[in-house]
């Protein structure tokens, strides 16, 4: 990862050859004189690209004090490398270094020192520390010594501690994921026979989670490990996919109970008995002077049709079996709520709430590690 910083880079050193006596204690010099005198060959170790500003004239300042001390200031824009570990993304914190030192002179020839202490050697403008994606927590300074084939060199270091702002990712990723999971659990409250509606809920939420995952990954560098956001989205995807599997399970048993619930048999019995009753009625109306009465027998399962005539002949009774029981039982079996749906209505929201509670408690309360100067020396 890279970051860009705009700095006023100031160096001061003493050259005994440039002492002078005169009415002025500090002598302003033209920046063109910098090429005529000795200057440190400072370069940035982790700099990818550095630009010196030249508009409208070179942004450089050169001052000479009567004791031979020179102050050399220039304005630079530096693109520096910042190693980032994104395991906690987007609740991550980073210490981005800025390292500089002499290119050719070893520590036996040139020694770099922070001249004004930790607080004043590096100062950050209040307006300049307002970043869109990060909060600047502070900075620490120090120095290191590195060895190479040509000798040992002093490296001056400054670490800027940054903490990423999470607001953008909450709006763009976390809230849509949470709402998608909640939407997938609405299908548990739909009728188990509403196959099209529950299928739309399941497939749509799975595709939505896939789209969110791809868009979130596009904003990240290609890292080989999973970030905190990846884990959150993976768990959300698991909840959504489990809701779809739950519907498939319920639908499978719904089809089998439909085949066994006796609805077809009940309707067949009702049709056959209706035909028999129609035949008997049509035959009886041809007899003149005969009256009919329908009585309910004591046995609740039988219905009695009584026939009497004016001649006083004994009544004949025809018994019809009660036809409603198989069909009624079939309707009760057909419309019952699945026990799997009942359990899922409780288990899924509770587990998702526990996961969110543990996830946010873990990452929000994690304090960033701030390095101090003692760790850098």
- What sequence of helices (H) and strands (E) makes up the elements? EEEEEEEHEEHHHHEEEHHH
Distance between the termini: 25 Å
Domain count, please report it: 3
Report Rg: 43 Å
**Count of separate DSSP helical elements:** 8
Rounded mean pLDDT score: 82
CATH superfamily of the largest domain: Neurotransmitter-gated ion-channel ligand-binding domain
Helix fraction, binned, reads 25-40%
Overall shape: it is rod-shaped
Kindly estimate the percentage of residues that lie in beta strands according to DSSP. 25-35%
Structural class comes to: alpha+beta
CATH topology of the largest domain: Acetylcholine Binding Protein, Chain: A
Can you tell me the CATH architecture of the largest domain?
Distorted Sandwich
- Residue stretches low in confidence (pLDDT < 50, at least 5 long) are 256-261, 284-313, 318-324, 329-333
CATH class categorisation of the largest domain: Mainly Beta
Number of strands: 12
Main β sheet profile: 5 strands, antiparallel
Family: Belongs to the ligand-gated ion channel (TC 1.A.9) family.
Keywords: Cell membrane, Chloride, Chloride channel, Disulfide bond, Glycoprotein, Ion channel, Ion transport, Ligand-gated ion channel, Membrane, Postsynaptic cell membrane, Receptor, Signal, Synapse, Transmembrane, Transmembrane helix, Transport
Main location: membrane
InterPro entries: GABAA/Glycine_rcpt, GABAAa_rcpt, Gabra-1-6_TM, Neur_chan_lig-bd, Neur_chan_lig-bd_sf, Neur_channel, Neuro-gated_channel_TM_sf, Neuro_actylchol_rec
């Amino acid at each position: 990862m890279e970051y860009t910083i705009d700095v006023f880079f100031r160096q001061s050193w003493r050259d005994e050859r440039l002492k002078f006596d005169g009415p002025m204690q500090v002598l302003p010099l033209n920046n063109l004189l910098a090429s005529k005198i000795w200057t440190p060959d400072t370069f940035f170790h982790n700099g990818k690209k550095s630009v010196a500003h030249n508009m409208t004239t070179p942004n450089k300042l050169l001052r000479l004090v009567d004791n031979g001390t020179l102050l050399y200031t220039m304005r630079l824009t530096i693109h520096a490398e910042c190693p980032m570990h994104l395991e906690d993304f987007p609740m991550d914190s980073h210490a981005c270094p800025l390292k500089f030192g002499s290119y050719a002179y070893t520590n036996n020839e040139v020694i770099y020192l922070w001249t004004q202490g930790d607080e004043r050697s590096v100062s950050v403008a209040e307006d300049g520390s307002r970043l869109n994606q990060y909060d600047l927590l502070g900075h620490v300074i120090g120095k290191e010594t590195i060895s190479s084939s040509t000798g040992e060199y002093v490296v001056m270091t400054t670490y800027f501690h940054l903490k990423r702002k999470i607001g953008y990712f909450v709006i763009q990723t976390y809230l849509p994921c949470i709402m998608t999971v909640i939407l997938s659990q609405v299908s548990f409250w739909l009728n188990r026979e509403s196959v099209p509606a529950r299928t739309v809920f399941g497939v749509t939420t799975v595709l939505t989670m896939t789209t969110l995952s791809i868009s979130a990954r596009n904003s990240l560098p290609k890292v080989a490990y999973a970030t905190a956001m990846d884990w959150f989205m993976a768990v959300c995807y698991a909840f959504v996919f489990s809701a779809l599997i739950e519907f498939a399970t319920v639908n499978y048993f719904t089809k089998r109970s439909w085949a066994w619930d006796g609805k077809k048999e009940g309707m067949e019995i009702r049709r056959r008995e209706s035909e028999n009753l129609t035949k008997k009625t049509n035959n009886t109306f041809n007899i003149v002077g005969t009256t009919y009465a329908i009585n309910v027998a004591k046995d609740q399962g039988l219905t009695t049709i009584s026939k009497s005539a004016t001649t006083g002949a004994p009544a004949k009774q025809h018994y019809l079996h009660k036809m409603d029981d198989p069909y009624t039982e079939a309707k009760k079996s057909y419309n019952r709520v699945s026990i799997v749906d009942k359990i899922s209505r409780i288990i899924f929201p509770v587990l998702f709430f526990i996961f969110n509670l543990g996830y946010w408690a873990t990452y929000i309360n994690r304090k960033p590690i701030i390095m101090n100067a003692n760790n850098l020396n």
